[in-house]
Amino acid sequence: MPSVAGVLGTDVSLLQSGMGGVAGSELACAVSDAGAAGCAGGYKLAGGALSAMLARLTSGTDRPVGVNLIPEVVGPDELDRQVAQVLDETPDRVHLSFFGMPHDAVFDRVTAAGRHLVVQVGTVEDGVHAAARGAVVVAQGIEAGGHLLGTSRRDDLMGALRARVPDACLVASGGIGSPGEAARALAAGADGVLLGTAFVVAHESRAHARFKSAVTDADETDTVITDVYEIGWPGRRHRVLATAVTADPGQPAKFIGKTLVEGKPYLVPRFSAAVPTEATSGRIEEMALYCGRSCGEISEEVSAADVVAAFARVLAGAEVVNTEEKAEHHVG
Ligand SMILES: Cc1cc2nc3c(=O)[nH]c(=O)nc-3n(C[C@H](O)[C@H](O)[C@H](O)COP(=O)(O)O)c2cc1C
């Protein structure tokens, strides 16, 4: 079984999460240029705004890089349009990354186009299904920052998934803020790791400066799982830094700020699912500050290349170690 790096064509089996609003083309390109798999957040981008982002992404790096889409946020018809646009407007080295399962027709369309798929899941069943359809599977544990796809701890999910699909390409996600934690994820059966929060604080991330400093100041006891930031993405629990809004969700849903998305202005209501970016102003501390338990190990803002270099030492041997462990397991 090829390594994550082998499949995606990167040097390191490390994926950066395509975080909507936070992960623009600057972060994705910097991560890919450093030898890992960068990924730009597609979120609700469509039409000319999506084209502009894709153009920046593909002109910003000549390395493998991804575009992240979220099936449950946009729905099947809009997802089809987004997928078609990405396939039409990007070269083959651009892979598609999905948060949650797309329909089978999407898997077929992407693989028929010769592109790699990365699918983040929260259950063994979804992981088995995505692996059978050729995806690199990201197993997300409840330690993760952002929206949560399941209810299992990261290493438990990985262990159960690895037992079902021993030869699949599996990536661990959730609560990984240090090379030591990445090593634990590899020991649990992962071929590589995906980081979200660790890249929120990268210089190239578009997260608002006060969001970045809240993450570097926090430890894991400052995060909570809630469902209050539901405007724009209802019905899914998420892990965020505790705020005055998570403490008192009974407040009125009035506007607390404004922002720009690809140059277009929007008002930000209290309870909005949108993260505060460098283009956001207002009551930043009350907005959705998605953050994993990994924040306990993240204490400074660094460049994306520094993050990749720090993890590369641990991840370089991932394939060798896991192949040996799997061989022993099979023999035993
Ligand atoms: C600020 C933030 C925004 C996120 N947005 C997305 C997103 O748009 N798409 C996606 O696939 N995952 C998103 N995630 C979730 C990550 O893919 C991943 O599950 C999580 O970051 C892993 O845990 P960690 O933050 O402890 O590394 C987001 C995470 C964070 C912290």
For this entry, give a set of tags.
globular; alpha/beta; 18% strand; TIM Barrel; nitronate monooxygenase activity; 2 domains; eight-stranded parallel β-sheet; monooxygenase; 332 residues; binds flavin mononucleotide
How would you characterize the overall build of this protein?
The chain is of the alpha/beta class. The chain has two domains: 4-204 and 300-318, Aldolase class I (TIM Barrel), CATH 3.20.20; 209-294, no CATH class. Helices cover 39% and strands 18% of the residues. The protein contains 13 helices and 14 strands. The protein has helices spanning 4-8, 25-33, 47-60, 71-89, 104-112, 124-132, 154-164, 179-187, 197-200, 209-217, 244-247, 304-315, 318-331; strands spanning 14-16, 38-41, 65-69, 94-99, 117-121, 136-140, 146-147, 170-173, 192-195, 223-226, 238-241, 255-261, 264-269, 281-282. The strands form three sheets. Strands 1-9-8-6-5-4-3-2 form an eight-stranded parallel beta sheet. A three-stranded antiparallel beta sheet has the order 7-11-10, with no helix packed on it. Strand 4 (94-99), helix 5 (104-112) and strand 5 form a beta-alpha-beta unit. The longest helix is centred in the first third of the chain and has 19 residues, at 71-89. The radius of gyration is 18 Å and the shape is globular. The two termini are 19 Å apart. Residues 320-324 and 326-332 have low confidence and may be disordered. The structure holds flavin mononucleotide. Residues 17-20, 22, 41, 43, 68, 70, 99, 120, 140, 143-146, 173-176, 195-198, 200, 275, 290-292, 294 line the site of flavin mononucleotide.
